[in-house]
Amino acid sequence: MRAGHLPRLTRRPSDRARIRFRERSDVSDLRVVINGAGGRMGQELLRAVLNGEGLSLAGALEHSTSGHLGEDAGVLAGLKPAGVTIESDAAATLNGTDVVIDFSTPASSVRLAERLAEAGIAIVIGTTGFSAAENAAIEAAARRTVVVKSGNMSLGVNMLAALTRQAAAALGIEFDIEIVEMHHARKVDAPSGTALLLGEAAAEGRGIHLPDWTAKARDGVTGPRRPGDIGFASLRGGSVVGEHAVIFAGPSERVELVHKAESRTIFANGALTAARWAKGREPGLYSMVDVLGLAG
Ligand SMILES: NC(=O)C1=CN([C@@H]2O[C@H](COP(=O)(O)OP(=O)(O)OC[C@H]3O[C@@H](n4cnc5c(N)ncnc54)[C@H](OP(=O)(O)O)[C@@H]3O)[C@@H](O)[C@H]2O)C=CC1
Ligand SMILES: O=C(O)C1=N[C@H](C(=O)O)C[C@H](O)C1
């Protein structure tokens, strides 16, 4: 660099220039709406958006009988007032939104995805516990708008899924695959979305169709394990954020791949990465594997 250029670079911008820059960066901020804003993940996401760079909170949604309606989203999240109140009227809130991030309930996610498909607004879905019919409805919505959906938004779990696929492909059928998960006492669905995602990865590695090879909820005299099954076990208790183990139990040896979530920030950060990635994409159903570039 030529010495003559240094003074120009180190000079502080005038107030007017700084205001102009601020206005420009506001215009380019990603405008995000959070659905399920009053929940554990909703509040985590409010903090992540309000503290994040290049993001603006365009709205915060809850259901029509939520006790949080009318509260300030910043205050709800334990921050200073954000000037955004918790609403239940999606139509009024969505105007000018780039991406909606949804961690709520399956029924709410499906309704919202259908509405966003009509409006051409992208959605990042973290909700888990969908039925086959609800998954089909989301796939239909993804033909008209961008949908990023994953049972786990964290980098670590998506890496674990890649390792699971690899191990399942390399180890023969004599290695029994069992997936064990533990979550907090308030979780309502089982197996967890992550456990199912890991099961899909193991099935892909083995070249089998997961629903045909799933063993869930063993109880009573079950008979011996069917060779080739992928087993699921769910534990619930306390405040556990989320723990998953994929066990490959072979003859006289065992391989265990484990992920332990220590904070919900990993899910919120992943969801924001997905939201940034989603902007401007072609309509379609994407996963965190696409967002994180982990395919193959
Ligand atoms: N993919 C991932 O990485 C992760 C996924 N999850 C999943 O996200 C979902 C939410 O988890 P969590 O935050 O712990 O659960 P919470 O129950 O704490 O939050 C869900 C929120 O959604 C609200 N809600 C219910 N119905 C509607 C509706 N129709 N419209 C808008 N909001 C609604 C609930 O309100 P109310 O409480 O009044 O019913 C609640 O505030 C779960 O399915 C969970 O498995 C969680 C963590 C990570
Ligand atoms: O409900 C939760 O808390 C979590 N749900 C997701 C799941 O079902 O796997 C992800 C994470 O483990 C936390």
Automatic annotation (TrEMBL):
Annotated residues for binding of NADP(+): K80
Active site: which residues?
Answer: H183 (proton donor/acceptor), K187 (proton donor)
**Gene Ontology CC terms, in alphabetical order:** cytosol
Q: Which organism is it from?
A: Azorhizobium caulinodans (strain ATCC 43989 / DSM 5975 / JCM 20966 / LMG 6465 / NBRC 14845 / NCIMB 13405 / ORS 571)
Give every Dihydrodipicolinate reductase C-terminal domain span. Answer: 156-292
Is Zinc tagged as a keyword? Answer: no
Q: Where does NAD(+) bind?
A: G36, A37, G38, G39, R40, M41, G126, T127, T128, S150, G151, N152, M153
Keyword terms:
Amino-acid biosynthesis, Cytoplasm, Diaminopimelate biosynthesis, Lysine biosynthesis, NAD, NADP, Oxidoreductase
Q: Which residues participate in (S)-2,3,4,5-tetrahydrodipicolinate binding? A: H184, G193, T194
Annotated compartments: Cytoplasm
Q: Please identify the protein, giving its name as recorded.
A: 4-hydroxy-tetrahydrodipicolinate reductase
Q: What is its main location?
A: cytoplasm
Give the record's family classification.
Belongs to the DapB family.
Listed under GO biological process in this entry are: diaminopimelate biosynthetic process; lysine biosynthetic process via diaminopimelate
